[in-house]
Design goal:
By secondary structure, chain A is α+β, with helices and mostly antiparallel strands. Chain A has 17 helices and 14 strands. In chain A, a hairpin with a 3-residue loop joins strand 6 and strand 7. The chains are: A alpha+beta, B alpha+beta.
């Protein structure tokens, strides 16, 4: 065959003129040396009130990105799920001298962006602005942090919007599956049991008093870090922060650190069906509580999951999409947080192959545990993670976001090169060990949102575990 | 000039653009947002642009084929996009999965996308992988069919059908966007059928279709290639010539011309869907991309319905609390454009009321014109977006390719911005009157299943 001949010719003499006769594409080019990741240099300082400041000057484009990260997020919700995210969303609904409309108008006038939000472990206020208007945008952000209005009318408006938004989630089978999954995997009382944005009942009870109280206790400069990247210097940022946040005082009654919910029980594998009659696809989510981000096994688990379901070329996507054509995409992930988030494997599959897809998921969980990974898979996953890190530091926003998420985890920036170095060293045996240790197909919760009449018989035949039916809120319905 | 200096050009420029704050004056100075490129064309017609940027050890490769769903033949809707999937299934010297394999091994990102007018393929990789990526792209441009099989077509047909189920059939309001295209553009117009296609047309796609489509459209003289990043132009030119140079040219593709549409009268329809809240969509035929009125329509949309300081948000969501969300905007494509307003009503609010209030806001803005503050917000937001787009290599490369494709020149950043900044409030009033206010348009109500009574009824008095 032509192809073989060319390959031989090239093997015999790479620079021989013979090769010129064949199209250049006949052989894959060799690689030059890989560029190395140069970590940004972080300059740090601190205000007298405890506010930490981290600055990464990046002068290529005249933009500045800032993230004010305050540790303590939705894990502080207690029995009021949704309170932290609601309070964070309320911050820019009127602050200082401006109502919500005037604030949004001023942000747009400055060509800036201002976003407020909460995750499980922090409240974050993000600002992006051209260098020219950055100081003015930061002044608005300081209003939002220190002088939010939280008026009753604003609270009621945003509460009603959120209530309608919670109802709208029922329209999205993926969102329904996620809510039921978390409610089943994490028991009542665990912070992840409820949705981060709360449910209808908790949301209806939100009022000005609870929001004010939450923010009074959460807005603590000693727990806050201001991360700034872009066309600025440390001196500029320090002076600005001193002016805007210097008078910020610690609360009299701060939140204690969020309680550690401790280990979570893992029932034997079970299947929960949620009915969506006439659905064109089934949404499948499979998993259990995962691992803390602080685990020393983080690099090995990242490698293992990259091979299992964490990239396009992973086993799950390759089989379910590229070989079988059952789905537009399949994958798996670990929720990397201080308190272990879920391990989740998921896909949206054609209804009539729901059972076959489920069988493949479980076969692959067992295969990577029992047989490990090949040398080629390991090398590809290593390279994917190590070289992929180069693209995580391209923009001011990316650098700020990397620093902010490490801050939330309480990890230094050196964690990133240390993890990459570990990934270079880890072996196939390490990968198989963490597959055995952290994949637990005998104790998984499977949630499927789909047309039960069509999919149930096939699923029961698989014998993976007992099958029960629940409603959109995760409550049991007739067996 | 070193490329660090080149980045500085863009930087100084953008400072200049926003330097009038406060108070705001439009100051679109020439040469402000330059993104320098080296451009050349291979003998086979492949257009190439190279942009040097050494701020990170990365390179973006962005390849456009000038074919989208608008060029599909009757009965084969969705084929351009299905074909895009086939481009990741291997070629003469690349295995199935090999394309993803190489780029993922590089820790890179890659994807392709299809719209009505073009199909693009892009990768961002560490700069030492540039040659590998050019090899991958050249092999499938030249020799895709050598690796084609019925099995691969059947597999990707299934994947695309699942994509349609996931993003349209099983998604709330998913089928409404398809319906709007069918209503606004007559059968036979390039924008009538959705890019995702109809299931029966996907079923009908055959190996002969793949071969014919490839030979007709996937030829170097119907493509343009942009390389942006940590590269040396002379070396890139050598590599591009080496890998793409001997791919034969095909038949020239017919030129694309604007095909604007008009409506003789309002068209009103109702769809039922598995949704909780009713949604109203209003769509007007307007102007194609690069029409002189495009930017004024964009500013009109920005002031009417983009973001929380827009008029529709302020009235419907913030003040009256009658709507869950409200958006408006001009959508321009090379052959035609449309202006859309979308309002999702709260429970207890009728779509008829929403429709009437949207008309009132349109009429007010069209007769009084925007305030100076609104004009400034629209311009400043647009300028900031333009600068942000220059932050990523992939964003820059795709925009360079768009300029190269649609305007024949790669560095239109500054002219584009200058045109936008030159729009006056009188222009905005004029286009609102010419194209939108009281002009015939589409009115589509999407209501929860079984609740057609919630649909917007024709108002008794049309402003």
């Amino acid at each position: 065959m032509n192809r073989t001949t060319i390959a031989l010719a090239l093997t015999c003499g790479f620079t021989a003129p013979l090769a010129a006769q064949a199209p250049a594409v006949a052989t894959q080019p060799t690689l030059g040396p890989a560029p190395r990741l140069v970590m940004p240099v972080v300059q740090k300082t601190k205000l007298a009130n405890g506010l930490s400041i981290e600055v990464v000057p990046m002068h290529e484009v005249p933009l500045v990105q800032a993230a004010l990260v305050i540790s303590g997020g939705a894990r502080l919700d207690g029995n009021r799920p949704g309170l932290a995210t609601f309070t964070a969303n309320m911050l820019d609904e009127g602050a200082g001298t401006r109502d919500a409309f005037a604030l949004a108008a001023e942000v747009a006038y400055l060509g800036a962006t201002l976003n407020t939000g909460a995750g499980w472990d922090a409240v974050t206020v993000d600002v992006g602005a051209p260098k020219r208007t950055f100081a003015r945008a930061m002044t608005l952000a300081a209003d939002v942090v220190l002088r939010p209005r939280f008026t009753g009318a604003d609270i009621k408006r945003q509460r009603d919007l959120r209530l309608a938004g919670i109802l709208q989630q029922r329209d999205q089978p993926g969102a329904v599956a996620g809510l039921v999954f978390n409610a089943m995997v994490f028991p009542a009382g665990h912070p992840y049991h409820a949705a981060i944005n709360g449910d209808s009942a908790a949301t209806a009870a939100l009022d000005s008093a609870s929001v004010r109280e939450f923010w009074r206790r959460a807005a603590d400069p000693r727990r806050a870090t201001l991360v700034v990247t872009g066309d600025v210097t440390l001196a500029e940022v320090r002076a600005l922060a001193q002016k805007l946040y210097g008078a910020w005082k610690a609360p009299a009654n701060p939140f204690p650190a969020a309680a550690d919910p401790g280990p979570v029980a893992r029932p034997a594998t079970r299947i929960v069906l949620v009915d969506k009659p006439g659905a064109a696809q089934s949404v499948v989510m499979i998993g259990a509580p995962g691992v803390t981000r602080r685990s020393p096994d983080y690099p090995a688990i990242m490698l293992m999951n990259t091979i299992l379901g964490g990239s396009f070329s992973s086993r799950l996507n390759d089989i379910l999409r590229e070989q079988k054509g059952y789905t537009y995409g399949a994958g798996s992930s670990f929720g990397w947080r201080p308190v272990p988030g879920p391990f989740t494997a998921s896909a949206q599959v054609r209804s009539n192959v729901t059972d076959s897809s489920l069988a493949i998921f479980f076969r692959e969980f067992r295969r990577i545990r029992d047989s490990g990974v090949t040398a080629a898979e390991l090398q590809r996953a290593r390279s994917y993670l190590v070289l992929g890190s180069l693209g995580n530091f391209e923009t001011t926003g990316q650098v700020a976001s990397q620093l902010a998420s490490l801050t939330v985890l309480g990890l230094p920036l050196t964690t990133i090169p240390a993890d990459l170095a570990a990934i270079q060293r880890l072996t196939a045996a390490d990968v198989q060990r963490v597959a055995r240790q952290y994949l637990d197909p005998g104790h998984y919760t499977v949630v499927i949102v789909g047309d039960i009449a069509k999919i149930r018989p096939g699923i029961e035949t698989l014998g993976i575990g007992p099958v029960e039916v629940r409603d959109y809120n995760g409550n049991e319905v007739g067996k | 000039m070193s490329s660090a200096a080149r980045r500085l050009t863009a930087m100084a420029a953008a400072v200049g653009l926003l330097s009038a704050l406060p108070p705001f004056h439009a100051t679109a100075s020439a040469q402000a947002l330059r993104v320098p490129t080296d451009t050349f064309t291979l003998k086979n017609g492949l257009k190439v642009a190279i942009h040097e940027d050494h701020s990170a050890p990365l390179v973006a490769v962005n390849l456009w084929y000038h074919v989208g769903s608008g060029r599909e033949v009757a009965g084969r809707s969705g084929f351009a996009h299905l074909f895009e999937h086939m481009m990741f299934q291997g070629s003469r010297n690349v295995d199935k999965g090999g394309h993803f394999g190489v780029v993922q091994e590089a820790g890179g990102t890659l994807n392709g996308s299809t719209n009505s007018d073009r199909t693009n393929y892009y990768e961002m990789v560490p700069s030492n992988y540039l040659e590998q990526v050019l090899w991958l792209e050249a092999d499938r441009m030249g020799y895709l069919l050598d690796a084609f099989s019925q099995e691969k077509l059947d597999n990707q047909r299934d994947v695309v059908k699942n994509e349609r189920r996931q993003n349209y059939e099983n998604a709330p309001y998913g089928l409404a966007s398809i319906k709007l295209g069918e209503m606004l553009y007559p059968a036979g117009h390039p924008y009538h059928a959705p890019t995702i296609g109809y299931q029966e047309d996907l079923t009908a796609a055959s190996p002969a279709d793949v071969e014919g489509f490839f030979r007709q459209w996937y030829v170097p003289n119907n493509a343009s290639l942009v390389i942006a990043g940590d590269v040396k132009p002379a070396e890139v030119r050598r590599l591009v010539t080496r890998y793409f140079g001997d791919i034969p040219a095909g038949q020239p593709a017919p030129a694309v011309r604007p095909m604007p549409v008009t409506l003789a009268a309002d068209q009103r329809e109702v769809m039922e869907d598995r949704v909780t809240l009713a949604r109203l969509s209003l769509v007007w035929p307007t102007v194609e991309r690069w029409n002189a009125d495009e930017d004024a329509l964009d500013i009109f949309g920005s002031i009417l319905g983009q973001g929380r300081s827009s008029r529709l948000y302020e009235r419907l969501v913030y003040r009256e609390q009658a709507a869950q969300s409200a958006n408006a905007g001009q959508g321009s494509r090379p052959q035609a454009g449309q202006f859309s307003v979308t309002v999702t009503a709260r429970e207890g609010t009728s779509l008829s009321q929403m429709e009437r209030e949207v008309y009132e806001e349109i009429a007010r803005l069209a007769s009084e014109g925007p305030t100076p503050a609104e004009m400034a917000r629209a311009r400043n937001s647009n300028e900031a977006r333009s600068v942000y787009q220059l932050q990523t290599l992939l964003g820059k490369a795709d925009r360079i390719n768009q300029y190269l494709t649609e305007r024949g020149t790669p560095d239109m950043f500054n002219q584009d911005l200058a045109h936008y900044n030159a729009v006056t409030s009188a222009d905005v009033k004029r286009v609102a009157q010419t194209y939108i206010n009281s002009r015939p348009h589409i009115i589509l109500s999407v209501v929860p299943n079984g609740h057609r009574e919630l649909a917007a009824q024709a108002p008794e008095v049309h402003p």
